[in-house]
Amino acid sequence: MTDKNDPGGSATKPKPGLFGRMLGQRDAPRSEAGAPRPGEPAQKRSWWVRLRDGLARSANSIAAGLAAIFTKGKLDESMLDDLEDVLIRADLGVATSAEIARTIGKGRYDRGIDVEEVKAVLASEVERVLEPYARPLVIDHTKKPFVILVVGVNGSGKTTTIGKLAAKLTASGQKVLLAAGDTFRAAAIEQLIIWGQRLECPIIHRPQGADASALAYDAVKTGQERGSDVVIMDTAGRLQNRTELMAELEKIIRVMKKVDPEAPHAVLLVLDATVGQNAMNQVEIFGRVAGVTGLVMTKLDGTARGGILVAIAEKYKLPIHFIGVGEGAEDLESFEARDFARAIAGIED
Questions:
Q1: Nearest 5°: CA angle at 110, between 108 and 116?
Q2: pLDDT along the chain (349 residues), means of 10
Q3: Distances (CA, A) of 234 to 101, 145, 241
Q4: Nearest Cα to 336, choosing from 132, 90, 97?
Q5: Residues with Cβ within 8 Å of residue 208, at least 6 apart in sequence
Q6: Dihedral of alpha carbons 232, 303, 345, 36, sign
Q7: In 3D, which of 274, 272, 254 has the Cα closest to residue 214?
Q8: What does each C-alpha distance from 298 to 96, 105, 274 come to in angstroms?
């Protein structure tokens, strides 16, 4: 075990129950149109711009489909069928796509309808579906340490997400212990060590090929001994159809419970938006094996099918804690349904 860069000292903790909101807290409210109000900090606007630009491929794909449909004249059944097809191809899910088409059709048959009107309805319906699941990650300070296990397939962005999350936690005064549980990849171990050094977080790691469940035991035990507020453990990226690797994940959880019967207190599944429908299968399998408690969606800037998040929410009804639209530490933010809905519908401000 290597234990470096313990910040030591006493850190001010946020009040219990408020930390989750703090992670996604914005400096000032935004106007209904989405633009910053006078005197609003530039950082607030910059996240909206990054989100809007990050979802541009998805929004542009949908907009192109809408333009092809709603320039044909008066609204009819065939146009609604075409709309549903466009939304399904954008991975919004069958039920949501059908509901949006039905909503567009109400009171609008046999009259013209423009694309901006359709976009407004699209944004409203997407927000309605997602709002119940836009929940901040709440750190329960009665659990000390609060253990977060991060799971997902190779390439989903788990290790980078852990670093970004640790940055947010430490910035709010939390004492964070990192555990480099992806013992299959030396690069993942090194990456987390670098994050630990950058953030002055202690980190537990072992050589490549070491037993990840033993490291999990040490991580929870050490977190207790050090008085850590949060322990975040990385895991090896494992394909959801590799039964032996999923069995190892089950073992990690069993071993954690030997130290703390309630651990892990949160299991975050990191999903790569670019894989589209395959993400649905990942939620199914990881949910069954690891008891996923919340989702993080990354790489929304790399796909035209960002609507997959809507389909996942519609089917699995899991909390969506964070979304990512870039590689920088500032490109992971708490999920807000209204912002996402307006961005994917292509509403500019």
A1: 45
A2: 37 34 35 36 62 90 93 85 94 92 85 88 95 96 96 91 94 96 92 95 95 97 97 85 80 97 98 90 92 94 88 95 80 91 90
A3: 41, 16, 20
A4: 132
A5: 183, 184, 185, 186, 189
A6: positive
A7: 254
A8: 22, 34, 9
